[in-house]
Structure prediction request, 945 residues.
Amino acid sequence: MTAPRTGARTLPPEESFRRLFSRHYGAVFAYAARRVGWDEAADVTAEVLTVAWRKFRSVPAEPGTLPWLYGVARRVVANQLRSQRRRIRLHAEVAAMPRIGWSDADPADLDDALASLREDDREVLMLAAWEGLTPSEMGRALGCSANAAAVRLHRARGRLSEVWGSTGGGR
Amino acid sequence: MSRDPFDQMKSRNPMPDDQAPAAPMSVADRIVGRGAVVRAGWPGWVVATAAAAFVLAVGGGMLWWLSGSGTEVAGSSSTTTATTVPPTATTVSGGDTLGDVVAYFFVEPTSPGWTDGPYLIPVSREVLVPGPAGSSSPTYVAAMGLLLAGPTGEEAAQTPAFSTAIPEGTSLEALTVDAGVVTVDLSSEFTSGGGSASMTGRLAQVVYTLTRLDGIDGVRFLIDGTPTTVFGGEGVIVNDPATRADFESALPAVMIETPAWDGAAGNPAVITGTANVFEAVISLALVDDDGLIRWEGTTMATCGTGCRGDWTVTIPYTVDEAQWGSIIVWEASAMDGSQTNVREHRIWLTPSTTGETEGAVYFLGGGDRDIAASGPYLIPVARLIDPSAPYVSTMQALLDGPPAGEGGITPEISTAIPEGTTLNGVTLSGAIAVVDLSAEFTSGGGSFSMMGRLAQVIYTMTRFPEIDGVRFLIDGTPTTVFGGEGVTVDDPATRPDDDTLLPAVMIESPAFGAVVGEGVFSAAGTANVFEATVSIVLRGADGGVLFEGFTTATCGTGCRGAWELDIPYEVDTAQWGRLEAFESSAMDGSPVNVRTHLVWLTPAGGSTTTTTSPVVESECSGMLATTTLEEQPGLPEAVAQKRNAIWDAAVECDWDQLERLLGAGFSYSFGGSGDAIAFWQGLEADGDDPIYYLAELLNRPFGTLPGDKDQTYYTWPSAFNQSGWQDLSQADIDALRPLYGDAEIAGFAQNGAYIGYRVGILDDGTWVYFLSGD
Prediction:
């Protein structure tokens, strides 16, 4: 290659990180808000991006960056929910799982149907429906192949329809 | 409105992307700037608050000498370090040794949950201690040297910032040790400047630093050789000798004593400290280098609600390699459970060297037993056990209970043993384990809970082959009747004959969460099922079936028998698998009484195949395909030729040839762009078998679909049609096996159409697609 390359390669890592940060903060924030609610989302996002900075050298280049961040966010959220549940149990309060953070206007039946699914099914559905990921991006976020992700989405959709139908959804 | 709930989900995104807030770049700057100092366990706003608090403390007239600031120098500028301390009466000549020495500095409070600071914090540093190892006096000198030198510039600038109240220029003139009391002779700079808060602070630093050393209870002060008990213009008076109790006001509500900041945690980590908190309850979390929680729990201080008590907790943890982590300790607010009085130390985590072995304890897991009665039932759960104290460490693991979220999605794992139950001891008397528990064990719960907790102990201890029964002591008193409802146990108690607390199908080994052997392992359990037949399925992390089989229990249909089965499996990478044991319904063969254990699977041969390894040409899943391609009448000549060519290239794994065969505008599975061959190679490397499917599908019945401009697509398999699943013949469906199993076929039916892999060739012989999905 004869032409000198410009762009990301020549940037200092701090600057590259700032660009990554400004490009993806909103998406990671939205991901977190959908799962743990707006209040906790800023903390989760900061944590995800802190991990990204610490592991900056292993963060994949675009367009793989955001799916990778979702993968980290998934673990951070799981961690957060785990400690949340722990706290709740500790104080012997209502042992309710944190609700999925969507708006009150949604009909309860879809909410319930989704909540009754296994966590991995729920995650794959949310990644497809809300984050709008393609199967290959989902694969990156979930640590599996694109094909496995597509199959998982397919199965999860089937199970969602099944649960929804049996609870009288879709009237 | 669409009938598909998935479409509804899409339209009800709780947070559309365009509503996300703009990126706060100040947070990015903070992340980039703070390096490893601030742990991920701290909320993002902590840093800003800390900086503000720091400014307030200085601006508010409190006089602190900040090492490295250079603005408030009192006295001479000579720095005191461990190696330049003048020789004292106790110095011994000899080789120097490298050791961890701790000095106490002050740290700013970094969150609103903290009570007003600053507070003392023990800081560990590796320094050269003059003199031979084992002689303690040089350690005192080294500790004083570290203390007088103050925080490093980095420590003064980090968050949280460390500071010292000891004026710069203070030097150690002499140090003697006598009967648990250290006498230090400091230069007069020690008493210069600062108000009474600063004066009390510097005295506290010296007292805490020296009394941390073994056998030291008090400190006597000399200033320039003169015994001194009154300091500064405002007359701060200290006892003679001064002790830790005189300076408790400098401590935070929750204090971590060991490990010190930057100290080594050891493995398991032994964390000690003091606390003055409501009802003496403190909460702890250990986080790793990624900021992820590795352990969480609570402990009790010896005293609380108005008095300061001691606490100690031993935290088992596993890390792959040595790394920085944090211990975070806090008081959970009595109001809302939020974290208050948070204390956090950066600590050095190391992999375990004790060689713990895997044992198991019994918790209660949900799950269906049959239609009439459902759980919870006993479930063995894997735990790391200290082989040097197997009974005690196993019982302790049982009392610790399951961490929240263990079991993941299914089943929920719980314990019937009340929180706060402590182990007074376990002794072995012949084949009987004598277990002494605190009175909390008998508190609360109905008779089912009481039976559950007794069974948990009995099953856990009798899992050891050398133990047949358990004798219960409650605070030293032999006990056979438990709780208000009078649950009685035998003395000694053994595993009961009736199986009230057991599921119809019980997996005894491997325990839930256990690491199983490479490539093959033995599963065993008991069952009380129709005709004694137990079905076993092992699934990989992606849900794919790795093993399927059945075995017969020694007894069935009304009695409980034992079963055992060897389970071979193949995985490319280490992963969590799911071992399912169940009864096939006598009615319709569907699985009932399903028991699921997570198990950690590892590839045979020890080495993990990396997914990045290049795909060797001429090796791919196509080689697994049936060896001959059947002639298919009814295909145009051009299509038949292309079909033969694709087949040959697929079974030969000839990537170059496959690439040459691709038609213009070829489409392959979604997700990639540009290079179909690279995409398939990527799938192959990930353990998928696209080329096997490509070859096998060409050997299935074909169908036709109309294309543009009177063209016709010839498609394999015939199940991929235009009108939907309901129009398929049984032959079309059967042809999908064994490429697709019952579950997938049921999925297609539900979906209304076949959406698996299919191959398409135009009537002019152009290969136009090989893809999957809808």
